[in-house]
Specification:
Layout: H1 4-12, H2 38-42, H3 53-62, H4 68-72, E1 78-81, E2 85-86, E3 97-112, E4 115-124, E5 127-134, E6 148-153, E7 155-158, E8 161-165, E9 168-171, E10 183-186, H5 195-209, H6 219-224, H7 230-238, H8 243-274, H9 285-292, H10 301-314, E11 321-326, H11 332-345, E12 349-354, H12 357-370, E13 378-381, H13 387-399, E14 404-408, H14 409-418, E15 425-430, H15 438-446, E16 452-456, H16 463-469, E17 474-478, E18 488-493, H17 498-510, E19 514-518, H18 526-542, E20 550-553, H19 559-570, E21 576-579, E22 592-597, H20 605-613, E23 622-627, H21 633-644, H22 648-659, H23 667-670, H24 684-700, H25 710-720
Parallel strand pairs: 2-3, 5-8, 11-16, 11-17, 12-14, 12-15, 13-14, 15-16, 18-23, 19-21, 19-22, 20-21, 22-23
Antiparallel strand pairs: 1-10, 3-4, 3-6, 4-5, 6-9, 7-8
Bound molecules: adenosine-5'-diphosphate and magnesium ion.
Length: about 725
């Protein structure tokens, strides 16, 4: 067991130089115990930390806290600024505050199926504060009448009384002074450990073990980047002296986290560009004219520039790794077609991956039409193939009897695991890649093929996301749309405008236009969503759209059903397509100029923008009406900005600011471990700083082999080696 005295000794001496301490003389057994290195001490099981013991150690394990070091880096999830502690009658409308009081009364009411309202009356002196929780009945058991409580939240005046909705609560011992005058950490908890206990545990771990932590940055780097040394930052992130110290401490850890990530990306990028081989596939005037002749329009300057960038990359003997980003309808497909045909011109194969079956089918049609007069051979590899058909396609791919393969991500991902064999793969294009990340790209590489890569986004992505999730790629951007893009008149409406809208909608249908109706987004399951779309369909076919030909599209249908529904719509046999948001992805039907979106508040801005892009493609202006009941200010702000601007790049930034990064880093989607402290929507400046610093380091030392950075380098490989396919540190 690690004796407290030993920990103290470590604290008062420089790390690595453990001197014996006078207290050791009084500590039986101590003198026979071998002294532990700082690293070993940081690996002390939590059980032996002050105030923990075996029982609490089990609870801490649930929070993934196993060793002393884990506790040191268990950063607060929030802070309470106790300088704002107030009496109830000093509260100010909308101004965050904390109040101490005694629970006077608790009541729980059912307010509808699955709905409840929990109320609590808190008495402070002679005044009362009412606290409310909607649909959180389980909170009731936490609220014990007569107990003293610290409540923090946003006060609202309701008649004569102050109210807080969903405040943060924390129990105080009867004799405990309300913590005042400093900033308190708020940790994530687990059943059995309360906030006060957690603060004590972390506090004493920081006191005993923070001085043992070695910095990953050399001193001159800390100075140059204006970063606090880790031993100064650790205590301050847990128990800040003031706002300014907290800022400095946070900056230190945010910077470190982002730099480590940017270094991993920079190393990956450097290796891809220098160590992997790919066939050089240069373009020429002859190839260029043979390809562009196939397009029914002139390329825009933006498309031309993107193509030039791609051609430069593909001419190299190393794989291209390029992201093509552009707004909805900006014309990414022809750029991809150019690249694929360039590969084919050199006798190589190309693969185009789409996220959905519908989109894969559509790409096939576009390509088929453009290549009708050429000898280029196309094939489709999607989930709708029978095993025998799939086998046949795979055989043809292996024999080199197919030039361009259009597939869905899911299928090719499954196939790539068992090793899809191309005779001579020169290029892979990932279309509408938003939810797919680094991992997918790496997966194909493992199959032993080294083609060129082109990744196309579904929609403009926020700058910092691009620099991170696609940070190992070069970027080409299509900013201006192709000529003839229609404006889409966008309305935000409530129920009272329904009649007028449908009247207008029918009028346009009568003029020969087509339209979409997007049913509200349902997240429970595909089955619920399908039922929901069906219901919207039934209601409309009996009501507002009774005399029109309607189609129905949702995720529960078979690929064949979906395809025939789309065919009917494209051919104009159905006038209105009632659908889930599946149509958002790339569907292109020029005569569709009308769209109704139901439950608009449930969609993200990027999704709404994608949907809007569906009705801007024809010869006539588009009309979009979003019916929404904004439940929050955030959702209202989102919908307002949607009607105000149609610039996808601007909307992407707004959405990101409003909603935060959410689960961008969900391992399923991107395969990158989650960021623990940095926030890509908030820490934009630090992302840019870290990226520039990482680039500079890797430019001069591609494998980060300078011994001064050995510790940092280990951290990079430890954290991202697997996710970014970097292998282990040498
Ligand atoms: P996205 O970038 O959303 O994938 P697409 O590649 O599907 O957009 O292109 C959208 C539409 O614009 C298509 O109908 C396409 O034929 C058309 N288009 C693309 N480039 C041009 C161009 N240079 N001139 C005219 N129309 C174009
Ligand atoms: Mg597209």
């Amino acid at each position: 067991m690690l004796a407290v005295s030993e920990v103290r000794a470590a604290r008062t001496t420089r790390p690595g130089v453990l001197r014996s301490h006078p207290a050791d003389l009084y500590n039986a057994g101590m003198s026979t115990m071998p002294q532990k290195s700082p690293v070993e001490q940081l690996q002390t099981p939590v059980q032996f930390l002050k105030g923990v013991g075996p029982q609490r150690a089990e609870l801490l394990a649930k929070l993934d806290l196993h060793y002393a070091a884990d506790v040191l880096f268990f950063f607060p999830r929030a802070y309470q600024d106790m300088s704002e502690l107030k009496e109830i009658d000093q509260l100010e409308e909308g101004k965050l505050a904390s109040v101490v009081g005694v629970i006077e009364e608790v009541d729980l009411r059912n307010t509808g199926p699955g709905k409840s309202l929990l109320g609590m009356l808190l008495r402070g002196g002679t005044s009362y504060l009412r606290c409310l929780w909607f649909n959180q009945p389980w909170m009731q058991q936490k609220l014990i009448e007569g107990r003293r409580l610290l409540v923090s939240g946003e006060p609202k005046r309701e008649g004569l009384r102050w109210e807080m909705v969903h405040p943060r609560i924390e129990y105080l011992a009867d004799d405990e002074d309300a913590p005042a005058g400093h900033i308190l950490p708020v940790y994530s908890l687990t059943e059995g450990i309360n906030q006060t206990q957690m603060r004590r545990i972390v506090g004493s771990a920081v006191e005993s073990h923070a001085p043992l932590v070695e910095d990953v940055f050399p001193d001159d780097f800390l100075d140059a980047q204006h970063l606090w040394p880790i031993r100064a930052a650790l205590p301050q992130i847990h128990q800040p002296n003031d706002e300014a110290s907290l800022e400095q401490a946070r900056r230190r850890f945010i910077y470190q986290e982002l730099l480590v990530l940017q270094l991993a990306l920079a190393i990956r990028k450097w290796r891809l560009a220098h160590q992997r081989q790919a066939p050089p596939l240069p373009t020429s005037a002859k190839i260029d004219s043979r390809i562009t002749r196939l397009f029914p329009f002139d390329l825009t300057p933006a498309q031309r520039q993107a193509i030039d960038e791609i051609c430069q990359d593909m001419a190299q003997p190393h794989p291209m790794n390029r992201l093509l980003q552009g707004d909805v309808g900006s014309g990414k497909t022809v750029v991809a077609m150019y690249a694929m045909l360039l590969a084919v011109a050199h006798g190589h194969q190309a693969a185009l991956m789409a996220p959905t079956e519908i989109l894969a089918q559509q790409h096939r049609q576009t390509l088929k039409a453009a290549l009708a007069a050429s000898k280029v051979r196309l094939d489709l590899l999607t989930g709708s193939l029978t095993p025998a058909e799939r086998r046949e396609v795979l055989d043809k791919i292996a024999a080199g009897e197919v030039d361009i393969v259009i597939g869905t991500h899911a299928v090719t991902h499954a196939v790539s695991k068992s090793g899809v064999e191309f005779k001579k793969l020169g290029l892979v294009v990932f279309d509408e890649q938003h939810k797919f990340g680094v991992r997918q790209r790496a997966a194909l590489k493992k199959a032993g093929v080294d083609p060129h890569y082109l990744v196309m986004t579904a929609t403009p992505i926020p700058r910092t996301v691009g620099m991170t999730l696609f940070g190992d790629l070069d970027v080409s951007t299509l900013r201006e749309p192709p000529p003839g893009r229609q404006t889409v008149h966008t309305y935000l409406a409530g129920d009272q405008q329904r009649m007028r809208w449908w009247h207008f909608f029918r009028g346009k249908l009568d003029e020969g236009r087509q339209g979409f109706v997007i049913a509200p987004l349902v997240e429970e399951s595909e089955a619920v969503e399908a039922a929901n779309v069906q219901q919207t369909f039934d209601t409309l076919s009996r009501g507002e759209l009774a005399n029109y030909r309607l189609g129905l599209l949702h995720g529960r249908q078979t690929p064949a059903e979906k395809e025939s529904t789309m065919q009917a719509f494209r051919a104009g046999r159905t006038q209105v397509l009632i659908s889930t948001s599946v149509v958002e992805v790339g569907v292109d039907v020029p005569s569709a100029t009308l769209m109704t979106i139901e439950g608009g508040e449930r969609f993200g801005l990027a999704q709404l923008h994608q949907l809007r892009g569906r009705v801007s493609r024809g010869a006539h202006p588009g009309y979009l009406c979003v019916f929404a009941n904004a439940a929050s200010d955030e959702s209202q702000a989102r919908l307002d900005s949607f009607t105000k601007t149609s610039d996808g790049f601007e909307l992407a930034e707004i959405d990101f600011r409003l909603r935060g990064p959410g689960d961008l880093f969900g391992t399923k989607q991107h395969g990158l471990p989650p960021l623990r402290i940095a926030d890509l929507s908030r820490d934009i400046a630090v992302v840019e700083e870290a990226r520039a610093a990482a680039q500079a380091l890797i430019d001069s030392d591609p494998e980060l082999s300078n011994p001064a950075f050995a510790r940092l380098c280990r951290m990079v490989f430890h954290r991202y080696g697997e996710a970014l396919d970097l292998g282990d540190v040498g």
